[in-house]
Amino acid sequence: MDFFVIIPAHNEEERVAEVIKKVEKYTSNLVVVDDGSTDDTAKVATETGAVVLKHLVNLGKGAALKTGCDFALQHGAEKLIVIDADGQHEPEEIPNFLAALKDKDMVYSYRQAAESMPVVLKFGNWFINKALNCLCNTQLKDSQCGYRAFTAEAYRKIRWAARDYYMETEMIIKASKHNLKYSQIPIKTIYGDKYKGTTVIDGVKIVFKMIGGNVLR
Amino acid sequence: MSTTFWIQFLGVIFGSAMLYFTFVKFKRKELSNLELIAWFAGWILLILVAIVPPILDFIIAPLHFYRRLDFFVVLGFFVLLGLGFYNYGNAKKVEQKMELLVRKIAFKTEPGGAELKKDKKE
Description:
The complex is a heterodimer.
Chain A: E1 3-9, H1 16-23, E2 30-35, H2 41-47, E3 51-55, H3 61-74, E4 79-82, H4 94-100, E5 106-111, H5 119-136, E6 148-151, H6 152-158, H7 167-177, E7 182-187, H8 200-215
Parallel strand pairs in A: 1-2, 1-4, 2-3, 5-7
Antiparallel strand pairs in A: 4-6, 5-6
Helix pairs in contact in A: 5-8
Chain B: H1 5-27, H2 33-51, H3 57-63, H4 68-108
């Protein structure tokens, strides 16, 4: 078995099936982690034939991804690709991630400036990017984009503790501490539901944790 | 009537109410015998101090507090900060345990959907 795609999903019954269908064009090693959804996300995902792991309660994106990645590793994954269930990320980029991962430990992606991206999020991303690049000595263009790929070896080094959206930042901090080789590829992003995903409060939490938590330790 | 009468009165009422709630929790078997004794001791001490504040003068005098009430305010802050930290630590511990438990159950439950297959590209 080679690469696995992990999809953390929380209340995504409307979009998850389409994402799974698109991902299945590239691999059958697909793990959906239903993170305590109150709708039929798990049922819809199961009907597509994907492997579905179910969190009894909602723990957060970081915890759901960790469950999926741990499961994938237990089943012999050598490479992992993580993608959102809300349809923001295009699965057709998967071959690009695999190509970029050939001689690297990690592949980050960056969203091309989308008109539809809310201004508050644009500013938040810009600020977190600047601060994180400064603190970790990295040159990342988009530190908060969740569409990423990494090798199993890299995952063992960057396995995060955060249960929430901070995991994306923690991943970068740990990768930087372990001097993991990375590359960045551009991706298209579609913004659907503006009330889902990272909020301003999440952004503030990320900044506080970033400064106070890992970097200065 | 003393200027601190109403504060003392409230202290006694609060202490008595807490004695009652502690007892109710004990009867509901939410507290052990030892916990009941520890909490009772705390509330009785609070009532005693509210009725006879000078019993704490041997602590307050060497610390040079202007009024006894200042001592209680400072003490209250310390207790609150301590409890806040204790609760924070406990909440983190419970969260970590819950995460482990939820993940364990997710792994143990037969995953829905199909078995993992080889890559389509292979």
